[in-house]
Amino acid sequence: xQLEQAGSAARGPQEQYFSKLAEGRFQIQRCAGCGAHQFYPxxxxxxxxxxxxxxxxxxxxGTVYSFSIVRRKPEAGGDYNVALVDLEEGxxxxxxxxxxxxxxxxxxxxxxxxxVRDADQxxxxxxxAEEA
Length: 132
Hints:
Blueprint lengths: L2 E3 L7 H10 L5 E4 L5 E2 L14 E4 L4 E10 L9 E8 L4 E4 L14 E9 L2 E8 L4
Antiparallel strand pairs: 1-4, 2-3, 2-4, 5-6, 5-8, 6-7, 8-9
């Protein structure tokens, strides 16, 4: 597991997170004080208030907690999903699930994280675990 001090750069945690994504790296914070992981990046641990946070590579494994299908006409890009995914590390993030039809999504579905570049922005998306 690779660790890098979250406060080591002069940039804030959100900027650090997006810089790592632009490099193709998905990392979340872990508190040295209590050992808990957190997402969205913050300056202090949301669990114990400590400032000793480090960046770590999550396993990427997760489970669909909930999702919604946004319906659009095909000429507007078609339907897409917005999902809440619980990572093995105990954090929940909002993203989308790629590689599965809207009617194939299920709560409890195992998924894996991937960093993809859409237009000019990198982001974390998930795919069904059996496709990863």
